[in-house]
Amino acid sequence: MNIEIREAQLCDAKSISELIVPLVKKYVCPDCDASVHDVLLGSMSEQRIESYLSSNYCYFVAVSQNKKVIGVAGIRDNSHLYHLFVHDNFQGLGLSRKLWQAAKQQAIQKGNQGRFTVNSALGAETVYLNFGFKRIAGIRREKGMVDIPMLLEA
């Protein structure tokens, strides 16, 4: 399977949002209070992704042979892994690791000394543990959101 990993462009915002929103509904929302679902999903709208791509975020996308965005990684401030999602049909192929490594490598080139954070969804913790992240606290429940704060020091 020929899948390209490349830095995301502003024109990818719609495709990124269309990938992330259903995955968040399926994997993240069930652990969070219903009261935060709209806010959470709104933070992944096409307009919000455009604003991230235009500011202090860097995104990488995995693009299939038919030019569909099937995976995404986004880092804020070259240090916080903000988004990491792979379409269900393409999970288990190592794409999340490839996306993470592309984003991590660029962050290091831009001056990160090897220290990264992520707020893991409950079901994603194993992925981050496999990347070398470690829990820095237990399961956190704040304002309806549920996550696990994690740190990687390379």
From TrEMBL:
Classification via Pfam families: Acetyltransf_10
Annotated InterPro entries: Acyl_CoA_acyltransferase, GNAT_dom, N-acetyltrans/Recomb-assoc
Domain of life the protein comes from: Bacteria
SUPFAM superfamilies registered for this protein in UniProt: Acyl-CoA N-acyltransferases (Nat)
Domain N-acetyltransferase positions: 3-154
One annotated GO molecular function: acyltransferase activity, transferring groups other than amino-acyl groups
PROSITE patterns: GNAT
Name under which the protein is recorded: GNAT family N-acetyltransferase
Species the sequence originates in: Shewanella fidelis
Lineage: Bacteria, Pseudomonadati, Pseudomonadota, Gammaproteobacteria, Alteromonadales
